[in-house]
Structures are given as C-alpha cells and as structure tokens.
Amino acid sequence: MRVVRAIAELDVAPGSGLVPTMGALHDGHVALLRAARVENETVVMSLFVNPAQFDEQQDLAGYPRDEARDLEVAEREGVDVVFAPATEELYPSGFATWVDAGETGAEGAARPGHFRGVATVCLKLFNLIRPERAYFGQKDAQQVAVMRRLARDLNVPVEIRIVPTVRAADGLALSSRNARLSAEERDRALALPRALASASGAPDPVAAARASLNGLEPEYVEVLDLGDAKVLAAAIRVGSTRLIDNVLLEGEIR
Ligand code: AMP
User: Is the Cβ atom of 85 under 6 angstroms away from ligand 1?
Assistant: First the structure.
C-alpha cells in the first residue's frame, strides 16, 4: 500500500475505485472499502478532514483523528493507495473556485455551505484520481444524491456506488462522531434509529417518527427522494453531538 501526500506523486491510472473518507475509520468505512475491493483492480482511499464542509468550527476542531490506525485498517482491507494530503495541498493560498451543489433541503438547509464543501472536494478528488467508481454510504443519503447530480451536471465520468448503512448491535448507525457520546447520551441517541425504523411503515412516516423521538427535538425529519429510492431521514442533537440517520421507505438502494 502506498501513502501519497503530494498531488505531484499521485500517479494512479484512471479507472480505479475511490473511497473518500475523513478518517477515524469504523466498520461503515470498511464496508465501502470491501465493496470497492470486490469491483476494482485498484482501490484508492482518500483520507482528508475537509475543512470546507464543516459549518461549525468546534465540530472541525474536535473531529476525531487517528491516522496510524486508519492506515492499518486500509492496509488490512487491501487498499492500494491512500491519498492523505495536507489541507494546503488541496486548498493552497489563492484557492477561490467552488462548486455550488444546488438546491439541497434537510442537511443542506441545516448546515449552510456543507454540500458546497463536499461537492468541491469530491470534484477535486475525481479530477485528481479519475476513478471509474466512487463509493459512498447510505447513512449520508443526501450526499449520494448530490454526488450523482454533480457527476451528471458536470459530466464527470464516474459511477456513484452506494453502500447500505452499517449499524452497531444496538441499532445506532456507525459514525466517527459516536465516539463523542457518553454512555447516557448514547442511550438517548438510540431513539433516532428506533423512531425511524418504527415510522417506516406508518401512513405518515414523518409524523410517526417525530412522535416517537422520546422528546429529542429533531433538526428535521424529511422524506428524501434519491431517484431509485425514498428514505425517511432525520438529524438530532444529543448533548453537543449531531447525529443523522435514514431508513428506506420505498425503492431500492443501489
Ligand atoms: P466520513 O469519513 O464520515 O466522511 O464518511 C466517509 C464515507 O463513509 C461516506 O460515504 C459515508 O456515507 C460513509 N459512512 C459513514 N458511516 C457509515 C455507515 N455507518 N455505514 C455505511 N457507510 C458509512
């Protein structure tokens, strides 16, 4: 496995499978790496905590980082190249061009500038690595929709692949931010996956989910149309930790 930090040293042949991550790898990331490993001759994982997609400085400053462990996980999962640039490598002084990700409700409305940051960094990664396929998790369902729209609208020849959400045994979707939850907060956070799961069969899933959130005030509960599928998505805050999740309502995640 090669670890590349400089764009100038990134001589990956076009046609690889790309897994973009911000590190602090867990089994959700591993599922993406395994899907990529099965479908591609060369697997590239990017490891970059993208400041441009954080709408809260505190969230960025406290974002968990453990590169040594991430590299071990990548190596174990058969990644060929890890691209782990410094911030200045992707955003050198004078950087001024941004991708406007267009209309995005839910996460886009709750986190101003988030999808602009995501779209910009992912387009940069697509241009640098020229993957045939790129892998994203269902947990960030809107991110997948934004990526597919970006690829279509800007004629980027990449297939966006989606991998189902990986959960802990108690049902909480794995997330790098879960590490910040105290035991008591984690207990309260379980209301989110439970409310979404129980509401998915209800006639009005949004109202049903809101009603069973055990007093947790959601930032939003919305039905998102992903093209092939509709999902029921919500964001909550438990203490200072923000969590998102979604479940399939109809169609197919693919
Ligand atoms: P992040 O490092 O949080 O930017 O996530 C990198 C990728 O992993 C994104 O495509 C996420 O959607 C995906 N991901 C994060 N958590 C999970 C999960 N629990 N199950 C599946 N994919 C996930």
Answer: no
* Residue pair 189/238 in contact by the 8 Å Cβ criterion: yes
Question: 54 CB under 6 A from ligand 1?
Answer: no
Closest Cα partner for 29 from 92, 86, 71, 90? 71
Domains in the chain: ranges and CATH: 2-163 (3.40.50.620), 176-251 (3.30.1300.10)
Please check whether residue 160 is in contact with residue 18, taking contact to mean a CB–CB distance below 8 angstroms.
Answer: no
Question: Is it the case that residue 4 has pLDDT exceeding 90?
Answer: yes
Inter-residue contact 152 to 52 (CB < 8 Å) = no
Of residues 16, 28, 29, 180, which has the active-site annotation? 29
Closest by Cα among 70, 79, 77 to 43: 79
Residue 29 is among the residues annotated as catalytic for this protein? yes
For residues 193 and 245, give the distance between their C-alpha atoms in angstroms, rounded to a whole number. Answer: 7
Residue 130 in tokens = 């020229």
* 165 C-beta closer than 6 A to ligand 1: yes
Does residue 172 have its Cβ closer than 6 Å to ligand 1? no
pLDDT mean over 138-162 = 97
Which tens digits make up the pLDDT trace of 177-189?
999 999 999 999 9
Ligand 1 centre from 100 Cα, in Å?
22
pLDDT in tens, 187-223: 999 999 999 999 999 999 999 999 999 889 899 999 9
Tell which residue, 26, 24, 37, has the closest CA to residue 173.
26
